[in-house]
Design brief:
The longest helix has 18 residues, at about 15-30. Helix 9 (about 290-305) packs antiparallel against helix 13 (about 350-355), helix 22 (about 610-620) packs across helix 24 and helix 23 packs across helix 24. The strands form seven sheets. Strands 25, 26, 27, 28, 29, 30, 31, 32, 33 and 34 form a ten-stranded mixed sheet that branches. A seven-stranded mixed sheet has the order 6-5-17-16-15-7-8, covered by helices on one side. Strands 1-2-3-4 form a four-stranded antiparallel sheet. It is globular, with a radius of gyration of 27 Å. It is α/β, with parallel strands linked by helices. Helix content is about 25%, strand content about 15%. It contains 30 helices and 34 strands. The structure holds iron/sulfur cluster.
Length: about 1000
């Protein structure tokens, strides 16, 4: 692939016309004597302030109009923290008042290119939110009683440091856990825990994207796709990706650009989402049938001989497959093709039509469009079907089968492994991997789980598998976000299970109510982070920073602690972790402090300036030179512009030849995997890719032989794309080692006649889980989550009209919500967005005043009941807008009524529910919830029984294949099963 600059028109037609228009605009602009502005987007962005004027940008005050009241601003970059896309923002810091007036897009950001969704500018609401937490708080009564007292940071730090130090010195390291929702950064927290010698990282990923990741990981050794949407001919999305998908705005703008260039968009989404409305082909499948559709398309490619034979021959691990599954037969590619031709013959269009409810002719037409894409086939599957169904991980695995058949892997307009379009710089200190294993997060039943089994934590604690002495949450609201939230509440209020519960959070939440300490952390413009995400065929790094700190430093002030510029005593986590680590190990005797010390001032505390300054100076190629060209240090450059593009046009990294220097003392397996004594071990704390295991003599895999050359290949056991997963075969699941179709737990065969499927996972473009509820503009745009019901179903259920109350009954309880009758959902399926239904306990602190209703929560002999005591109402606060709230319906918290459904392979919570929908009874009220947590435990046990535990299936005495990705990967000795370690 050519390494042309990103965004440069690469083909004739519309882009040439665009280029001509840009040239004309440049000429016209320069003729007027003005500067033509060309940011990373390579197009004229006249609406963005040129960076030369970021120290004194002038706008007229809209409120003073028609008077021309000039306002002077410093423009300071940071990064949005309202979803995982990490788009660039520019803070408009008023030079007169020293406050932030607004946030708009940063045109210097290569991923977002100056654009944002509604949630980006709404960051100003979060910063000025009258309900935010400004001071450290400690509970003053029983957990959950709503009584709090303000304390100092010193009191909080000393109390926590004392507990954590005791747990470490008493060898109770597994009693420390940091549970993260949205990380928003690459690896800082993992390294803090590694420095403590603790395997305490927990995540939200198994309630989010694990299903999607698993399918990609078994193929590529890398768990995320990076579609090159902008140059695709066909874009195939299994989700509402265009409006709310993974890398929402950065991807949406590139999909939109591709559409303008003639690309076809195919969307599989049971709902008529805003994405579906923009599709050339909208397929509304029966939930869980998506893999069958993918396989029908794959079968079409195979039977028609329209796959890329050369790509398959070179890059699939067909030889491993034949050797194990077809021994005694010819071990040739030609024979593999014969086998391949027979593997998917049952997946005809008629079969897929019967499973999906989409007619066979439409599927055949879509297959022809896919076939015509060639190597310009960009595809994505993330949450959606992969997160909804038992076996949902096969949705992404079968999707990638189509890409792999087309040879559309790491091609222009194709799909890349994400690690090639992402850059994680090495930090100043890299602590060693911990030698402990946390069974509460990585239990033996789920050896192949993609991520921590986080949502089962209350059940594991109840079973006595362990206890937590100190449990942190950050950007995470487990009671509200997870299924089975009342089991969470039961566990978190039991001090024998959780000794000390600490919420690191900018805002009150359903979980923070039950904490012992609530410690205020900054929003996106009040904290430091670095991050890099796969958004196009290139690599960039972004820098989130406290914008008032950067602004005041521009004016010559020296800021040494983010609390000096943040509101109240709001802090940032990086400085908090450094300080806490010093207090855990004040004299350095535990070996912890060394990882939080300055290099330039030995024996003194590391500062964030030194941490990021060192990283930008030593670990980001090209940045020091770019900064020097402007007479700045790399840190100054990043503080000024906020993001740096490291490279564009990465291309097919798997085809890179392995240098001779890495090919000393090699061995080569029968199917071409090359191991070398000269290969450096990958550091999974630095580079987020799989790390295939060394051979018996300790040589590490370095590449793969392809037609006589040693090429870099993929980080899988075979070095190739794994059509057949040796890992699934060896770890107890040989029947699922090939891309296949697993019938969902909500397959029609498994539903009772009066049950329908509830889709409960979809996002709205203007909300995001917990954080956005504290943004009044977003709340005004979207604040309800009615149940989507097809009119034919409504007639069947006896629901007369939109707005009528319905009772939706799950396996463990029910919720009462409003109905929305719409033909935008297929019959037999209902849908409800997961954003809404925020609540606060009566008597507790006010949280998200625009979105959280006041509720009563009671436990009776048959379980829990929640009823709404008061809706959202206008109220008096420092913000006059809180008196203007005109809405009162803020939806229903449906997740409380869902039991856990852990997929036995990926570990993903399978969100879809089989439900009964009835008209609400006379005693039912909107927002009512009933839950039986004893029934929830029964459902948990039933799903757990589907597993094949490591102790039964391990081929080598380990708990988990070491090559699989894992955040904060422990040292190899910790992978041994306890009985093996005892030998
Ligand atoms: S897509 Fe929207 S919410 Fe997400 S980072 Fe970008 S601006 Fe923020």
């Amino acid at each position: 692939m050519s390494r042309r600059p990103h965004g440069t028109p690469g083909r004739p037609g519309r882009l040439d016309a665009l280029g001509a228009r840009v040239s004309a605009a440049r000429a016209a602009t320069e003729a007027r004597g003005e500067t033509f502005y060309q940011g990373p987007s390579r197009v004229h962005l006249a609406s963005f302030p040129p960076r030369e004027r970021w120290d004194d940008w002038v706008e007229l005050s809209s409120r003073a109009w028609p008077a021309a009241d000039e306002r002077h601003y410093m423009l300071v970059p940071t990064t949005c923290f309202n979803c995982e896309s990490a788009c660039g923002l520019l803070a408009y810091v008023d030079r007169q008042t020293g406050t932030v007036r607004k946030f708009e897009g940063n045109p210097e950001h290569p991923g977002s290119r100056g654009r944002n969704c509604a949630k980006g500018p709404a960051t100003i609401n979060q910063v000025t939110d009258p309900d935010r937490i400004l001071y450290p708080m400690k509970r003053a009564g029983q957990r959950g009683s709503g009584q709090w007292e303000r304390i100092t940071w010193d009191e909080a730090l000393d109390a926590l440091a004392t507990r954590i130090r005791a747990a470490i010195t008493e060898d109770r390291r597994n009693e420390i856990m940091v549970h993260i929702g949205r990380p928003g950064e690459d690896g800082y927290t993992e390294r803090v825990l590694a420095s403590w010698g603790v395997d305490g990282h927990n995540s939200h990923t198994n309630v989010c994207s694990s299903g999607g990741r698993t399918g990609f990981q078994f193929w590529m050794g890398i768990d995320r796709p990076s579609p090159d949407h902008e140059y695709a001919k066909v874009i195939y999305l299994i989700s509402a990706h265009l409006e709310s998908g993974h890398y929402f705005n950065p991807h949406a703008q590139r999909i939109t650009q591709a559409r303008a260039n003639g690309a076809k968009v195919i969307v599989l989404d049971t709902r008529l989402s805003n994405t579906a409305t923009h599709a050339d082909y909208w397929l509304s499948p029966q939930p869980g049938s998506e893999a069958a559709i993918n396989l029908a398309i794959a079968n079409h490619l195979i039977q028609a001989g329209r796959y890329d034979r050369e790509f398959v021959r070179q890059w699939w691990n067909w030889a491993d497959y034949l050797a194990v599954c077809h021994p005694g037969r010819p071990q040739t590619f030609e024979h593999f093709e014969e086998v391949l031709a027979g593997l998917y013959t049952e997946f005809t269009f008629d079969y897929a039509a019967a499973e999906s409810g989409i007619d066979a002719a439409t599927l055949a037409e879509v297959a022809d469009v896919v076939t015509g894409a060639g190597t310009r086939f960009a595809s994505h599957c993330w949450r959606s079907a992969a997160a909804g169904n038992l076996g949902g991980w096969q949705v992404s695995r079968t999707l990638f089968l189509i890409s792999a058949l087309l040879g559309a892997v790491a091609t222009e307009g194709g799909t890349f492994p994400n690690a090639w379009n992402k850059f994680v710089p090495r930090p100043i200190h890299v602590p060693p991997h911990p030698h402990v294993w946390q069974d509460l997060s990585w239990p033996p039943e789920y050896p192949l789980a993609q991520n921590e089994m986080s949502f089962l934590l209350p059940h594991f604690l109840t079973e006595g598998r362990g206890r937590l002495d100190t449990y942190f949450i950050r950007v995470y609201n487990p009671v509200w976000t997870n299924p089975d939230g009342l089991s969470w509440m039961e566990a978190l209020t039991d001090e024998s299970k959780v000794g000390c519960f600490v919420a690191l959070t900018p805002t009150w939440s359903e979980s923070a109510y039950f904490a012992d300490y609530v410690l205020p952390m900054g929003h996106g413009p009040e904290r430091h982070d670095t991050h890099s995400y796969e958004q196009y065929n290139g690599q960039w790094i972004g820098f989130r920073q406290p914008v008032l700190r950067a602004a005041r430093e521009r004016l010559g002030e020296q800021i040494t602690d983010s609390r000096q510029v943040n509101p109240g005593e709001v802090w940032e986590e990086n400085e908090f972790w450094i300080e806490l680590s010093w207090r855990i190990d004040p004299d350095g005797s535990l070996g912890i402090r060394q990882y939080h010390e300055s290099r330039s001032r030995p024996g003194e505390k590391l500062t964030v300036d030194e941490y990021y300054g060192w990283m930008f100076e030593h670990s980001v190629p090209g940045l020091p030179e770019r900064a020097a060209a402007e007479g700045r240090t790399p840190l100054q450059w990043m503080r000024r512009y906020g993001a740096f593009e490291i490279s564009a046009g990465i291309g097919a990294a798997h085809r890179q030849p392995v240098p001779a220097s890495e090919l000393e003392d090699i061995t080569v397996t029968a199917t071409g995997r090359v191991y070398s004594a000269a290969a450096a071990p990958p550091d999974p704390n630095i580079v987020p890719v799989g790390s295939p295991e060394p051979d018996a003599d300790g040589r590490r895999p370095v590449g793969v032989q392809v037609d006589g050359a040693v090429l870099r290949g993929f980080p899988t056991p075979s070095g190739r794309l794994e059509f057949w997963s040796s890992t699934l075969a060896a770890w107890g699941w040989p029947e699922h080692a090939l891309p296949g179709y697993i019938k969902s737990h909500v397959h029609p065969d498994r539903l009772a006649p009066d049950q329908v499927v509830l889709l409960s996972t979809f996002r709205l473009p203007t909300q995001i889980h917990t954080r956005s509820a504290n943004a009044k503009w977003l709340d005004e745009l979207a604040h309800t989550n009615p149940v989507w019901i097809h009119p034919s179903d409504a007639a069947r259920f006896g629901i007369a009209a939109t707005g009528g109350l319905v009772r939706v009954e799950t396996e463990i309880g029910y919720f009462v919500a409003k109905a929305w009758l719409t033909e935008g959902i297929r019959p037999g399926v209902v849908a409800c967005s997961h954003h809404m239904g925020r609540w606060r306990l009566d008597g507790g602190p006010r949280a998200a005043g625009a979105m959280a209703a006041t509720v009563g929560l009671h436990r009776g002999p048959d379980g829990w009941r929640m009823e709404r005591l008061a809706p959202v109402r206008p109220y008096v606060s420092a913000d006059p807008d809180t008196q203007r709230f005109w809405w009162s319906d803020t939806g229903v918290h449906q997740n409380l009524t869902f039991p856990v459904h852990p997929d036995p392979i990926s570990g993903m919570h399978c969100w879809h529910q089989a439900v009964r929908v009835r008209p609400a009874g006379p005693a039912d009220a909107h927002g009512d919830i009933a839950v039986d947590t004893a029934a929830a435990r029964e459902v948990y046990r039933r799903w757990r029984a589907l597993t094949r535990p490591a102790g039964q299936v391990t081929p080598d005495g380990t708990r988990r294949p070491q090559w699989l990705m894992r955040p904060l990967k422990p040292a190899p000795d910790a992978f041994r099963l306890p009985r093996e370690r005892a030998r």
